[in-house]
Amino acid sequence: MGKRVIHMKQMRVLFVLCALVILLGCTTPKQLQEKPQAELSTETEHTKLYWFIPDGVRAEPYLFKIYEWAEQGLLPNIKWMMEHGSYGYAMPVYPSHTPVNFATLFTGAYPKTHGVSDGPMRTIGKPLDKVAVGGFRSVAKWVDPIWVTLENNGLNNITLLALPGSTPPELKHGITIRGRWGGWGADFHAINFESAGNLEQRIKQGRAARLFFFGPQLTQYINPVNATGWIEIGSYSKPLEIAMTAWGGTLYGLIIDTTDDNATNYDRLIVSLDKSKVLAQLNQGEWSDWLPIDLKWGNQTVSTQVRVKVIKLEPDGFFRVRLFYNNLNEYNTEPGKVAKAIIHSVGPMMDFVDNFPPQLIYYPEDKQTFLEEMNMTFDWHTKTTDFILSTYKPEIYISDIYSPNQMLTSRWWMGYIDPNSHRYNDIDDAERAALWDEVLSMYKRVDTILGKLIEHADNNTVIVFSSDHGAVPLNKWVHLNNLFAQKGWLKFSIDNTTGEPIIDWENSKVIYLKFDNIYINPNGLAGNYERASGPEYEQLREEVKQAIEELVDPETGYHPAVAVVKWEEVAERLKLPPERIGDLVVANMAGYGWNEEMTSDLEIFTVPLKSGYKQAIISNKALGMWAPFMIVGPGVKRGHFIQEPIEMVDEYPTIMTALGMPLPEFVEGKVVEEVFT
Amino acid sequence: MKKTLFLIFLILPLLHACSTQRTTTLYGLSVPGLEQFQVVTGVDTSVLSLNNITIEIGYIGAMTREEAELQLQKKSELIHGLYTNMPNPYPGLISDEIVCGEEFKPELVLNGTELYIEGYVTPRRTFGACSFDLIAYRAFVRYLYCNGNLVYIKGFVPLNDTHSSEIAKQIVGATSCP
Fold it and tell me: Within a 10 A sphere around the Cβ of A49, how many other Cβ atoms?
């Protein structure tokens, strides 16, 4: 019995010890058998890629003859690319719009596969008065863009600068700098402030100055008031004050008269954050330096910079002032410290000359402001390209600059230099030559950035120069919604105070929505959009199709529609994704542009202020939509001209082949074999 | 005998508890339940996978508590901003606003030096998609400030696998800084 007691005691001790050991085991962290990533990747040095894709660079053999300009010595770096590589022209996919073609360039697939059919996209099951998917967002793509594929293939040092479709960032290790319009991060676009005096002008601009992005209106109207609370600043007329508030920050302006001539002639703007410390004194036409300002983004305060331009300051005090905010900050760059480094070394970012809709098209002085802003933008991009390539030494560097697109679709140039424009003869040859000089100077600035890539490249670098589309003259807007209203298919009224339409969705059966979609439902368009069917629908759709096809510009006799395609045929005919388009897709003839705006006079054809366009054009016969494609690198033929234009969808597989990378299954473009030795 | 049985009953649950609560230490974080996972370790990230579950654990950097708080505020704001209705970049006269349904908005909890995000992500594991055709995974993300470092753990599970979602959520939720 006694022995048994001892045995039990021993057992208990053993159990307790076991329990302690187990408990200890449970609470001691366990290290996994880890396999270092280095063992999985190869040691070989990758071929590098420097790909420059300025937005909207037109290049074709008849008018924008960039290869001829290069041969003439105007574009030395393009000439170098011609001598050291293969080059030709590339045609955009339809629609010839920025987000669609950037997605195509970055995936080697058509819109039906990558999913980006436009900037604003509506989808089935969502209301039509809202945009369901933003085409500029990285997440809008159904398949991987090139940076994700390359990163998955072991290239970890990738930098993306200002690329549409690159944000929210998708890189795990690389650098993503301010992707355009991805809806990610703090993006403070430029804003114009103007005297509220001229109501007619205000309405004209107001229609095109709607919210551009998440923020204030592009042009804001304020009335100057008598100045109070300022430090003593001499003025020979009663000083006037304006408060320019946007993005949660206010700059005060004091409008003064510096001439002692017994007349009211205001001529200077004093700028201050607090009415005490003067930050800048500007006459008409002058820019300030970068001034410090705190702006609000969500709950965050972003300490950034702003430049002030006095576009107009008239003797009676009428003013038009532009505030250009630093486009770069740690809230739109990943990692954020890169934004700080660039701002420190290069300076605040100037990008996106003007805006969309364009604001620098209303006064003659706007043109000069545009040119100055564009040159500052090119300066920044040139220096930043140098800085990034020197500092971060990326294996893959892809960058964009928006300026060419903005210049060629603005009011001031395309309409007067392309003979296909109705405005071509509005000016004489000397004036046209001056405009060509300005356009050529823009191409030279593009060429300079290309030169930076060449400078930093080595023998194992593939350099590519291309673009997403060209641009052609815009002669007429076509107000399809006014056509539909004339037919009784669209019901709306106009708000007399704002001039904006109020749509009766319930009683409307047909509507056009940007950039090329017609939505149809015989039972009304209210609520969530669903694809209708049945004989009534088919009949209405046929009638709409016929009405668009038969539409004629009475002035020219042209039919503006070149294709009206039913949704079930778009994948085959236009390579578009049926899920993200309307019941009909309409492509327009070069020279025309579809416009959503509806008016009480129901006029269908109007003449726009801007003179260039690109969006809903089928590009194979519209040469003005073509863009350059140049490639230099190991295994690429030198001095080789690609006789037939390629499709933009072909660029990706050609570039991946040059890099020695496998092609993902979704790729639909073909390798341009003739460029390889 | 009764006492012996008592002890056995004490130990069995302990054994069970141990088998389910063993922890792995990566980047200073104690993470339970990863024994069966295959792991690939990089310079600043480890990716662990088992069946449908992918766990990423990574190191952002050494910093002060205040810097970590600022970073997490920024991350929180960036994610939140993706789901805020905003004007479309190419505004039309009619539909000029991009909207995101409530069902797509992630749960965001910011508590000083800890940020938790639960929601849908794309095939490329990016937040910001507001349409089911763009969504591939459920994501459970935690950023933690641990011994002077900002680190994170992320769990991803295919959208239709609710069982794995629960496991991933538990792993991410039970992760701690020892």
Answer: 25
Please list, in sequence order, all residues whose beta carbon lies within 8 angstroms of the beta carbon of residue B115, skipping any fewer than 6 positions away.
Answer: B72, B75, B76, B108, B109, B141, B142, B143
On whether both A31 and A166 belong to a single domain, the answer is yes
Token pair 């934004």 in the structure block, residue: A339
pLDDT of residue A218: 84
* Whether domain B35-86+100-174 has CATH 3.40.1000: yes
Burial (CB < 10 A; 0-12, 13-18, 19+), residue A277, is exposed
Rounded to an integer, what is the distance from CA A94 to the centroid of its chain? 17
Domains of chain B, residue spans: 35-86+100-174
Interface of A with B in 452-511 (CB under 8 A): 500-501, 503, 511
Contact predicate A370/A360, CB 8 Å = yes
- Based on the number of CB atoms within 10 Å of its own CB, is A289 exposed (0-12), middle (13-18) or buried (19 or more)? exposed
Of B80, B128, B131, the CB nearest to A123: B131
Indicate yes or no: CB of B129 within 8 angstroms of CB of A139: yes
CA torsion, ordered A472, A473, A475, A478, to nearest 10 deg: 30
Q: Quick check: ipTM above 0.95?
A: no
pLDDT at A34: 43
- Distance of residue B126 Cα from the nearest chain A Cα, in angstroms: 6
**pLDDT given at position A41:** 39
- Enclosing H/E stretch for B162: helix B162-174
Same domain, A153 and A293: no
- Residue A672 is inside which H or E element, if any? none
Q: How far is CA A15 from each of CA A20, A22, A33, A612, B18, rounded to the nearest angstrom?
A: 9, 10, 31, 86, 16
Q: How many CB atoms lie within 10 A of CB A229?
A: 9
pLDDT computed for residue B86 by the predictor: 78
Residues of B in contact with A296 (CB under 8 A): none
pLDDT at A80: 98
Q: Of A277, A297, A326, which residue constitutes the final position of a domain?
A: A326
Domain count, chain A: 3
Residue A36 β-bridge partners: B41
User: What residue has token string 């574009």?
Assistant: A75
Q: What is the tens place of the pLDDT at every residue in A253-278? A: 999 999 999 999 999 999 999 999 99
B9-51 per-position pLDDT tens digit: 555 544 444 445 578 888 889 999 888 898 887 778 889 999 9
- The whole-number pLDDT of residue A205 equals 57
CB A623 within 8 A of CB A60: yes
Smallest Cβ distance to B40: which of A37, A140, A501? A37
Interface of A with B in 100-119 (CB under 8 A): 115, 119
Under-70 pLDDT residues of chain A: 1-44, 198-216, 497-499
CB pairs under 8 A between A and B: 200
Q: Are strands A396-399 and A591-595 parallel, antiparallel or unpaired?
A: unpaired
Contact A15 B81 (CB under 8 A): no
Q: Which residues pair with A343 in a beta bridge?
A: none
Residues of chain B by 3-state class (helix, strand, coil), percent to 5: 30, 35, 30
Angle made by CA atoms A100, A102, A104, in degrees to the nearest 5: 70
* Cα distance between residue A129 and residue B99, in whole Å: 10
Q: Per residue in A601-644, pLDDT tens?
A: 999 999 998 999 998 999 988 999 999 999 999 999 999 999 99
In a domain, A378, yes or no: no
Among candidates B46, B81, B96 on the partner chain, residue whose Cβ is nearest the Cβ of A210:
B96
Contact B45 A214 (CB under 8 A): no
Q: What is the pLDDT of residue A3?
A: 45
Asked whether the beta carbons of B154 and A5 are under 8 A apart, the reply is no
Question: Are A634 and A459 within 8 A, CB to CB?
Answer: yes
Domain extent for A318: 188-326
